């Protein structure tokens, strides 16, 4: 195994100590590094949590559906991508925090459990193809910039300054002329902000800062979800228990598309304690055809039952499809952009290849 030991120096200049990466994550989380304090399960929060009662009786500011600022000065970023250990919430929060001009210590995360009406705007709520940052960057950046604009407007009014003379930085609005300033939290404690920005119309009009001015994006920042994960406070899907809940284990046909279930023999599965029944998936999308689910009161029982089920399938027209057939189809679609789906199509590749002095061709 590779040596993962690194020399770590503490923030207060204390003597360096040899720690493995795992030890460093555990120690920094359990000793209360920064303000990463825990998790509030009821709201779906995953990151830092403000002290109880800090914003009681005061109005929070939600300029768009992607984040909320509360009068205690904390900004909660609403993450609608799947967290699988890659800290996607931290990455998306960096985008908003950069344009919103908030201190990283003031940022926390949650995963919305309510507000289904917003899901159509949120878009696909899963993580695939390393696409979360690339697909979300522009609108999250504009959401943060919109929030900054609203805070500067409100801050200027409270400071009795011209809006053009004010700027935001580190969760604070400052009047360049007088030097006076007010924090985001103080603004929300003194006034209610009703400013809203619609997506995508208002977002298109919001200017973004030049990339050369970035202070949070592109830099290493503490991941907001490490403390809760390390201390066991983080709540995963496997931790959820609901009244009458059962567990399922899949039985999948060898051919993915167009398979049909002819029969299911659950005789052996019924001998397993906790087995409930077998369900054939009625899939209207055509992507999960022929799937059978073994349901049981406990997950281990569901797994055993799935293995015990005897399923007969009609494998359909793709039963004899080979890897060679798939490769031929790949090549066909790669050459015919009209028939395929190009995720990124920019410039004229064929022309560039014709004009190149040297062409390297590789098939993989």
In summary, what is this structure?
With 364 residues, the chain is of the alpha+beta class. The chain has ten helices and 14 strands. The chain has four domains: 31 residues, no CATH class; 200 residues, Aldehyde oxidase/xanthine dehydrogenase, molybdopterin binding domain (Aldehyde Oxidoreductase, domain 4), CATH 3.30.365.10; 74 residues, Aldehyde Oxidoreductase, domain 3, CATH 3.90.1170.50; 33 residues, no CATH class.
Describe this structure in words.
The protein has 364 residues and is α+β, with helices and mostly antiparallel strands. It folds into four domains: 1-31, no CATH class; 32-231, Aldehyde Oxidoreductase, domain 4; 241-314, Aldehyde Oxidoreductase, domain 3 (Alpha-Beta Complex), CATH 3.90.1170; 323-355, no CATH class. 28% of the residues lie in helices and 17% in strands. It has a four-stranded mixed sheet.
